[in-house]
Write a structure and sequence with these properties.
Elements lengths: L7 H42 L2 H14 L3 H5 L1 H8 L41 E5 L4 E4 L7 E6 L5 E7 L8 H36 L1 H14 L14 H50 L7 H28 L8 E3 L1 H19 L2 E4 L1 H7 L5 E3 L1 H17 L6 E9 L6 E9 L35 H11 L3 E6 L3 E10 L7
Parallel strand pairs: 6-8
Antiparallel strand pairs: 1-2, 1-4, 3-4, 5-7, 8-9, 9-11, 10-11
Helix pairs in contact: 1-5, 6-7, 7-8, 8-12, 9-11, 11-12
Length: about 500
């Protein structure tokens, strides 16, 4: 039978409960051990405190005999001293001290058996100042002791009493049982309170996890607007919730871009298909003859479809696990001039001037090389030129410039493409190179052209980053958009 898996809250509660139970067992065990070990010395202290009469007798015996020698040599004297004779036992608190009475040394008849040894005599003894036994039992660790002094207050020895080996009296056992019961009940009550506290703490500490689970389930159900409120209980959970919300925002942005791109792609596909359908139906109905102009129009629409499908395929390939392109030493400025030459006729037809800055012609004469793939770099330049052509008003211009930056590090080739109005809103500039993004609202397509797929700049960024370069967009001083492309140059170009 497989046991159900515990939640994190259940595991935390179980761990805290087990720890508290172990602590309770240790507390009760050590309390019992302490009571058992501490009760004997305590009882010995109480018993010895009630033997002030014996202390005075021993001090008087020491004064009369001039030392402990007589007590050492005559054991019967020790028994005589321990036997109370009309002595008022002192009670707790101040009480008048009886005067020492004359001691009569017992007459021990040879062959007479000593009196039986009681329990107290086995525990009671006298030691001198050097700790040597004078009479009775030897001192033991944890036993009680009382100082013995002569008439001038000088220390002459100690009266010692060993603790009980066990609980011999019912009162002692009852006292120990009562104290142990108090300890046990205190521990059980403390355990119950601690379990409640641990359950509350586990639920409070791990509550953000339940919130995150609920949020994740909502995200999985497609509710991308879901956000988890941040909590200040834990810095770790705060960072986790912040990361979760950032992920949700990114997913919402990607989903919005995906929906927009799907709509734009459907529109792009539908427009040439609708035009082709109209042309074909007009030919079928005999309204329009199938002549050279009709064939060119159909061919132009087919080429737009091919371009759109090619951009989609390229975007998918570059985002996937395609093998890296073959790299070699290539001349980027020669590829750029070749792309500009190929696009010149289209710029002329659109009415947009394509101009190369003087520094571009000067640098083109130098053997500037980068480690890259010529086909991909040529595609980058074509896409950038195509983007400016599509989104620049007729009568405008596109100016291409270049420079080499060194700044104490490896040389870098920087290309700038500046076009004229219309421009791009500042808040849209950081998103131009994102896949599936097009700034339709602020940068209208020129000459009625319905534009590309919104993937051209994203493809450019992927290729440039694969070549170790950077590409970014900013406002152009000409009133339109500036694209800045930077590529690392080879320090020792091959001839």
């Amino acid at each position: 039978m497989q046991l159900p898996r515990l939640t994190l809250q259940g595991k935390a509660f179980a761990a805290l409960s087990a720890l508290l139970v172990v602590m309770l067992v240790l507390f009760v065990g050590f309390s019992l051990l302490g009571l058992q070990r501490g009760l004997g010395p305590y009882v010995a202290e109480v018993e010895l405190a009630r033997m002030d009469w014996l202390v005075f007798r021993l001090q008087a015996a020491y004064e009369q005999q001039g030392g402990w020698q007589t007590l050492r040599e005559q054991p019967g004297l020790w028994r005589e001293l321990r036997r109370p004779r009309n002595v008022q036992m002192p009670t707790f608190g101040p009480a008048p001290v009886p005067a020492p009475e004359p001691l009569l040394l017992p007459q021990v008849t040879p062959g007479t058996a000593p009196p039986p040894v009681d329990a107290l005599s086995r525990r009671l003894g006298v030691v001198d100042t050097q700790g040597r036994v004078v009479a009775g039992a030897a001192p033991v660790a944890g036993g009680a002791r009382t100082a013995l002094r002569d008439g001038e207050g000088r220390l002459i020895g100690h009266l010692v009493l060993a603790p009980l080996d066990g609980l011999e009296r019912d009162a002692d056992r009852a006292f120990l049982s009562k104290q142990l019961g108090f300890v046990v009940w205190s521990g059980v009550t403390g355990l119950a309170l601690a379990l409640l506290l641990s359950w509350w703490l586990a639920r409070r500490w791990l509550r953000p996890i339940d919130t995150l689970v609920t949020g994740a389930q909502a995200i999985a159900a497609g509710e991308l607007h879901t956000r988890v409120p941040e909590q200040a209980d834990s810095e770790e959970f705060t960072r986790l919730i912040h990361t979760f919300n950032a992920m949700a925002e990114q997913l919402a942005s990607v989903e919005a871009s995906r929906r927009q791109w799907i709509g734009d792609t459907a529109h792009e596909l539908r427009t040439p298909l609708a035009a082709m359908r109209a042309e074909i139906e007009a030919v079928q109905d005999g309204v329009r003859p199938f002549d050279e102009k009709t064939a060119r129009r159909l061919h132009r629409q087919v080429m737009r479809l091919i371009q759109l499908v090619g951009d989609l395929r390229a975007s998918v390939d570059m985002a996937g696990d395609q093998p890296p392109p073959v790299m070699s030493a290539v001349q980027p400025l020669a590829l750029l001039r070749e792309a500009m030459a190929g696009m010149q006729s289209r710029f002329d037809q659109t009415g947009v001037a394509l101009q190369a800055a003087p520094d571009l012609a000067t640098l083109a004469k130098q053997p500037l090389q980068v480690h890259g793939n010529a086909q991909q770099l040529h595609r980058v330049f074509l896409n950038l030129l195509e983007n400016s052509l599509r989104y620049t008003d007729p009568g405008g211009q596109l100016q291409v410039s270049a420079c080499v930056l060194r700044n104490g590090g490896p040389p870098r080739l920087t290309l700038r493409l500046d076009d004229t109005a219309p421009g791009v809103a500042p808040h849209e500039l950081p998103h131009l190179f994102e896949r599936l993004y097009r700034a339709e609202a602020s940068r209208r397509r020129a000459s009625g052209d319905l534009g590309g797929s919104g993937l051209g700049l994203a493809i450019c960024r992927t290729i440039v980053q694969a070549h170790g370069g950077q590409i970014e967009a900013s406002a152009s001083p000409l009133g339109g958009l500036r694209i800045t492309l930077t590529l690392p140059l080879l320090e020792n170009p091959s001839p």
